[in-house]
Design brief:
By secondary structure, the chain is mainly alpha-helical. Helix content is about 40%, strand content about 10%. It has one domain. About 0% of the residues are buried.
């Protein structure tokens, strides 16, 4: 249902079953991601990583953040 060259399964549906899945977190915006990176930096970052540079390079992703609502409307409720 959604894919890129790097990841062929961003979103999927099990054929003939009411089961859908996302391979990413479309509900996480750049502010939430920054908070998560800061909170779990010991798990996410290597010792020599520049935390501030990473945070400065985060950008809003409104298209991704709208995917859940579009999914509900277009797939589950079948609105166009």
């Amino acid at each position: 249902m959604a894919f890129t060259e790097q990841c062929p399964y961003h979103a999927f549906k099990v054929i003939d079953k009411p089961f859908y899945g996302f391979q990413f977190h479309p509900e996480v915006d750049h502010h939430d991601l920054a908070a998560r990176i800061i909170r779990y930096q010991d798990r996410y970052l290597q010792a020599d990583a520049d935390l501030q540079q990473i945070l400065n390079n985060l950008h809003p992703t409104p298209e991704s953040n709208r995917l859940i609502q579009k999914f509900v409307d277009r797939i589950l409720l079948q609105k166009r």
